[in-house]
Amino acid sequence: MSDTTDFVQTEAPVTVKAYLMCAFAAFAGILFGYDSGYISSVLGMAKFREDYGHPVSLSDVHAVLKGDPPQAYDYDTWQKSLIVSILSAGTFFGALISGSLADRYGRRTTIIAGCVIFMVGVVVQCSTTHVVSLSIGRLVAGFGVGFVSAINILYMSEVAPRKFRGAIVSCYQFAVTIGIMLAACVTYGTQNRNDEGAYRIPIAVQLLWAVILIVGLYLLPESPRYFVKKNDMDKAAKALARVRGQPVESDAIQDELLEIQANYEYEKDIGEEGWRACFSGGFKRNSNLRKVFIGTGIQLFQQWTGVNFIFYYNTTFFQQVGLRNPFLISMITTVVNVVSTPISFWTIEKFGRRPLLIWGAVGMTVCDFVIAIVGTADAQSTAANYVLIVFVCLFVFFFASTWGPAGWVVIGEIFQLPIRSKGVALSTASNWFWNCIIAVIIPYIVDPDYGNLGAKVFFVWGSTCLSCIAFAYFFVPETKGLTLEQVDKMMEEVPARLSGGWKPRERFVQSTMLRKSELIEPASNVSGGMVKRVD
Asked: What's the 3-state SS for 294-308?
């Protein structure tokens, strides 16, 4: 092979049907997004506060801010914190467990199991009108969402073609935004009902998304890399042929499969496959520990941008600062979220992962500090409220087009096959752990009876977004245009700051065969740098 471009051609061509199959897997994001999004509006419903809360008088600060009648209802801060955060707690543990299950039973099977568990949780949430039952239901549902959110990213990364892997995995974040928007639309339509349907309908609608995902995944193939890991090459070839839309016997399918197998054998020879392997190698450039640090770190910072403060508590926060039509404003932010995300389909493949993360964090930092400064200097004025609405929407735009999709794309690309399922599971668990922590503490730092920060909370988010810039610059590698096997080689050879200019110089199947031939054959059998293909 004469130039580096030849070394990049290690993947079979893909048909339109195959692209659509890969993209459908992103539907799981609707499940995640809807479940995360409906709770914000439900918490602000008068009927929900009546059924789950306790009577308060007109003199109560919360009642005045929310414009309730003299005999109003509200819930305690600890109840709001528990109801919101318990989902993330369940998701954290579900994500951790899912990695081992995906290696043992398959990626697709684990996602389907997660959907079934999620449906059980939804049924429990609809069963009674009590904070305890609602919380238990959200905990169980969160367990299922943990399976789905972790392994769906793994599945999509393993089946998507490298040239459009970033765009296809970004479809997952797009589906998340659609789920959040659908939740806002459904709750907007039911908010004025005077019966339990006001909040039960938004909760029950989630069952539909789970059923659609189960049926769709049943029709999709398993990840070919899972079968390679299981050493079942016949099934691996059939699965790869389906996701590429090519005949099993084609040279392109056989070549790509050989490259995947060679990389797996190489990684298996030099390292372990268990959980302990995820923390091996110290902090050197291509160690497993460093990859886990990058994966968990990027998910930590994605949460500490403050985006879930907006989507978990936007309705109640807008009520507290005195905005009119908080449900409508909440729905507008979700529409901005949906419209902005598809921009990343093009930019993530055109400019890469690193530029999106760095410049997206810059934009979010500016928005946060503008909101905080104006909201502190001229609190609850008309001007401050307009600034809040406009810059929250701008913040959502920057997040949805950069950190939202790119954070998921990167964690699906940086881990090698022997630890990929566990690495993605740890990274996703990090997302949900910090999601839970933020959901717990926000009511205590924002509610009038406690921290009462109001708009000052955006000073916190602005500071954490500054940290996002530094983390992305120094640690996150550029993976655009590389196969998952080439990403591992790139991280071995260059630091993150120089990764954008790296080009592959050899194929794993070549280096592996050369290494084996040097051990079992005389040097004279290797001529002119050419290696005989070994089946």
From this structure: HHHHHHHHHHCCCHH
Residue 375 tokens read as 């909201």
Contact 121, 109 (CB under 8 A): no
In which element (H, E) is residue 140 found? helix 131-159
Instruction: Tell me how far CA of residue 251 lies from CA of 158, 223, 256, 258, 262, in angstroms.
Output: 20, 20, 9, 10, 16
Contact between 325 and 453 under an 8 Å Cβ cutoff? The reply is no
- Paired tokens of 478: 């550029």
CB neighbours of residue 2 within 10 Å: 5
Q: How far apart are CA 421 and CA 229, in angstroms?
A: 11
For 56, the 3-state DSSP assignment is strand
Q: pLDDT per residue over 218-233, tens digit each?
A: 888 898 989 988 889 9
C-beta of residue 450 within 8 angstroms of C-beta of residue 443? yes
Q: Which pTM does this prediction carry?
A: 0.76
Tokens of 354: 């690193």
Lowest average pLDDT, out of 362-366, 410-414, 511-515, goes to 511-515
Return the CATH superfamily for domain 27-55+75-220+283-501: MFS general substrate transporter like domains (1.20.1250.20)
Residues 197 and 42: their CA atoms lie apart, in Å, by 11
Name beta bridge partners: 352: none
Residue 55 forms beta bridges with which residues? 73
Tokens standing for residue 381 = 């004025």
Which residue reads 């995300």 in tokens? 341
For tokens 């509200």, the residue is 74
